[in-house]
Amino acid sequence: MIEEISVRYLDSFTGNKPADPILIEGLPGIGQVGKLVAEYMIHMLGAKKIGEIHSIYFPPQVILEECGLARLVRNELYIYRASGKDLIFLVGDHQSTSNEGHYLLADQYCMIAEELKVQRIYTLGGFGVGHLVNDPRVLGAVNRAELRGELEAAGVVFNREEPGGGIIGAAGLILGLSAKRGIDAVCLMGETSGYLVDPMSAANVLAILSKLIDVPVDPTKLNDRASEMEKVIEGLVEVNKVQKDEELSYIG
Amino acid sequence: MIEEISVRYLDSFTGNKPADPILIEGLPGIGQVGKLVAEYMIHMLGAKKIGEIHSIYFPPQVILEECGLARLVRNELYIYRASGKDLIFLVGDHQSTSNEGHYLLADQYCMIAEELKVQRIYTLGGFGVGHLVNDPRVLGAVNRAELRGELEAAGVVFNREEPGGGIIGAAGLILGLSAKRGIDAVCLMGETSGYLVDPMSAANVLAILSKLIDVPVDPTKLNDRASEMEKVIEGLVEVNKVQKDEELSYIG
Amino acid sequence: MIEEISVRYLDSFTGNKPADPILIEGLPGIGQVGKLVAEYMIHMLGAKKIGEIHSIYFPPQVILEECGLARLVRNELYIYRASGKDLIFLVGDHQSTSNEGHYLLADQYCMIAEELKVQRIYTLGGFGVGHLVNDPRVLGAVNRAELRGELEAAGVVFNREEPGGGIIGAAGLILGLSAKRGIDAVCLMGETSGYLVDPMSAANVLAILSKLIDVPVDPTKLNDRASEMEKVIEGLVEVNKVQKDEELSYIG
Amino acid sequence: MIEEISVRYLDSFTGNKPADPILIEGLPGIGQVGKLVAEYMIHMLGAKKIGEIHSIYFPPQVILEECGLARLVRNELYIYRASGKDLIFLVGDHQSTSNEGHYLLADQYCMIAEELKVQRIYTLGGFGVGHLVNDPRVLGAVNRAELRGELEAAGVVFNREEPGGGIIGAAGLILGLSAKRGIDAVCLMGETSGYLVDPMSAANVLAILSKLIDVPVDPTKLNDRASEMEKVIEGLVEVNKVQKDEELSYIG
Q1: Is residue B244 part of a domain?
Q2: Is the pLDDT of residue A247 over 70?
Q3: Residue D32: other Cβ atoms inside 10 A
Q4: Hey, are the CB atoms on B141 and C56 less than 8 Å from each other?
Q5: In B, which residues are within 8 Å of A173 by CB distance?
Q6: What b/e sequence results for D228-243 when a residue is b if at least 16 CB atoms lie within 10 Å of its CB, and e otherwise?
Q7: Lowest-pLDDT range, A174-178, C152-156, C229-233?
Q8: Residue C252's pLDDT band (boundaries 50, 70, 90)?
Q9: What was the pLDDT predicted at D249?
Q10: With an 8 Å Cβ cutoff, is B190 touching chain C?
């Protein structure tokens, strides 16, 4: 019988425990902000894959890789062995398709963190505001009040009314569920329109996260992607303006 | 593994059994009537928190408190130790997101009532009528026919056709499921439009509940809030009237 | 912990086994045809209640009875002790709200039939055709080919293409699942528009069922209700015709 | 209690193990392509039924067969005993109605394959492109990279970007889940509009599958059906063109 959720570590990892690790979650979500940051860090730091998570709560499909190779929807764990303080990344294709599955998966992620003796969790996400943002802020949430000061010092904004609706999905639930296991967790949310993949927002989250964990990550390529995206958006805004002018002249 | 539903009592409460308690349920619902009444009573009586309920049937998110502190969606239990007859309150952020979860949670609430040797349960809710109501009535339902007389004497209206669709969610299910455990339960429903948070309706429910349980609660602040809401609604009605007039003059 | 499905027999019934019983299912469905027939028979024959079924797969609400008494949504079992051949009725407020629940409940009904040594099951339903029907036929389905002849002799229509979409819900699933337990089962479906409660269709189903089980049931009151409904529909058709004429004269 | 998924083999099959079998899955899906191919092969090869699968994850209904005989929604297994290499077919009425059910059923299919010592699985499906296709290609996916060459040699197209959204349902999940059990699996997808049952696409899939498994299947009847369908579509296109012309002349 298939397990509801299965975690499998690669043989190369087993018995090779991480040192005082930090867990960074960047699953798909609003503006793909968290996913962009975590996958960019994995790429730039050359983090190595250590495990896979499969679940019947993911969408019932396979993903096709370049060579026509089909694989189950999955989440993945990567490790970057920094000096004295390892980084573990949780990334993947999808989050749960059901409400209950969200809880069960998020609790599984916290169980993994506990097993690997994770010292702190950073969950990354986007904070959708519904309009274009020029200089996206990085908003924060914590699962222990004492964590807030350190984040504010690094430039994270805490705003009593934002996000008013709470934090939905893994980025939020991990904060709530890790508290029960005594693990500190922090959520960094890049402000974003919510309409488009947002590398600008991701770049700002990366800058702050990099500072907080004291692991330098060259932001050049992400900034390049942000600049390209900025041009795309300027183009869209321009087209939109022309259309509005035309509508007006038509009415006029 | 995460429990589907977990109940945790605070240490300060354990071993400190309530005396002949009454359970008052005021979870979110139509017009937030039940929630308003129960939370107002907790505030005015200075009831103390004694426990928390978490569940995978709640929405998969965390709530942000003022200081950016994230916590799981939850229901809470409070106690007010009246002389000889304690009040226990069940309040919270949300009800279940699934049909099955509604049953499982409501049964858990009844199990709590049984454990705490609750003598009677009051569930509070709104009864949505789809239009503004000037002097909202308080409708009742019971899980044992003999309970009806006492309620009618206190001003509760029993109307054969209302609510015709039954009572949906915790306020209703608790009545049905507590009967199986031999616990008397009563539902008080404040008539409400169903469109807006309704402190007027809540004030009427409070007045009757306060009489029924013989625990005086100063209604001033709730009445003030009702008055404010009344002005807001008058404003809305006025705007609406003006618009209609304008439409008519436009047509004319 | 609440059971997913619970069956409780009244004390008066326990140990008082039915003789060679027939089970008649008339749960809510298209045109309420099955429900009308089964509840009419219970009423006219003076059948006695013998049990209740509750389930977390029913809608999460309570029903209010006349005196403001709340009770859980439920299905009920009734018995009519005919000479030598008892009739058991399965009626109720609702069917399952989930697909899986439909299977689990229908299987539970078949388990009840097996326990009570039911010889044959009749499931009753409506067959929605989407337009008004003057003389509604009674269509049939069986779970063993040999049952067909007897039904055709009683006036049941078997039509290769009807209902093309199969039979959804309890009336259908009971046929499929009882076959696995070696119990003969037959579905009688009254043709109906599907838009309105349809006592005309129900009267035709009753006439055939009564003949098949050889238990006379005075149809007068059901026929009366059908006549009333016919007048209501004639009224609606008339109004509709007038409106169409007006539209035509407006266009013309 | 009903099992969530049950597999029952016919007595005639038990103890009569297939020789080095290949499993061919053709459940309902886009354009019914897979279903058409598998059921056509069963018909033309005279494959014999060996088993049935029932599940609470299928739609809650019965299907009516010609004589009014109701049967549960099911999937079926057939065998064609070719010389030295048996073919097993998995066909049926429906796939799962829930996401979790898709995983549980697909895993069950893989368990069956493992028990029967299946050497390779072919899953068949349609690849919806949203417009009419003149000469539909057959796209492929594999669960082990080394399988690709053999398929390309037989005319299967592997295209890095197709299908971009992955493969949803049984045809996809079987690939992913059989890999975990060490069984090679291949998906053949016939390009199709996705709007209509598509025997043209099915004929192309059949031609390639027949070549790959080296079992000749006379395609005449499927080609005939494809020709008929082509005429139907030409008719629809013609009607559409006339309508557009009329609209234009109306505007003009």
Answers
A1: no
A2: no
A3: 21
A4: no
A5: 60-62, 72
A6: ebeeebeeeeeeeeee
A7: C229-233
A8: very low
A9: 64
A10: no
In a domain, C233, yes or no: no
pLDDT by residue (tens digit) across A32-43? 999 999 999 999
Torsions phi, psi for C61 (to 5 deg)? -155, 170
Give the residue with greater pLDDT, D16 vs A74. A74
Instruction: Answer yes or no: is pLDDT of B60 > 80.
Output: yes
> Is residue D252 assigned to a domain?
no
pLDDT for A94-145, tens place per residue?
Answer: 999 999 999 999 999 999 999 999 999 999 999 999 998 889 999 999 999 9
Whole-angstrom distance, CA of residue B232 vs CA of residue B196: 11
What is the three-state SS of chain C?
CCCCEEEEECCCCCCCCCCCCEEEECCCCHHHHHHHHHHHHHHHHCCEEEEEEEECCCCCEEEECCCCEEEECCEEEEEECCCCCCEEEEEECCCCCCHHHHHHHHHHHHHHHHHCCCCEEEEEEEEECCCCCCCCCEEEEECCHHHHHHHHHCCCECCCCCCCCCEECHHHHHHHHHHHCCCEEEEEEEEECCCCCCHHHHHHHHHHHHHHHCCCCCCHHHHHHHHHHHHHHHHHHHHHHHHHHHHHHHHC
Which domain, by its residues, includes A185?
5-219
Residue C243 domain-assigned (yes or no): no
Q: What is the CATH number of the domain that holds A115?
A: 3.40.50.10900
Decide if pLDDT at A161 tops 80: no
Closest Cα in chain A to B69 = A142
At D145, the amino acid letter reads A
- The domain total for chain C is 1
Cα A11 to Cα D112: distance, rounded to the nearest angstrom:
29
pTM of the model: 0.93
A141–B contact, CB cutoff 8 A? yes
Instruction: Note whether B210 and B24 are within 8 A (CB).
Output: no
Contact D179 A71 (CB under 8 A): yes
As a whole number, the mean pLDDT across chain B is 93
CA B194, CA B126: separation in Å to the nearest integer? 8
- Strand A87-92 relative to strand A22-25: parallel, antiparallel, unpaired? parallel
Q: Does B137 touch chain C (CB under 8 A)?
A: no
Angle at C57 between CA C51 and CA C63, to 5 degrees: 65
What percent of chain C has a predicted confidence (pLDDT) above 90? 79
Report the range of poorest mean pLDDT among A238-247, C77-86, D1-10, D150-159: A238-247
What percent of chain D lies above the pLDDT cut of 90?
Answer: 79
Q: Which residues of C touch B115 (CB under 8 A)?
A: none
B235 touches A at CB < 8 Å: no
Rounded to a whole number of angstroms, the distance from the CA of B51 to the nearest CA of chain A is 15
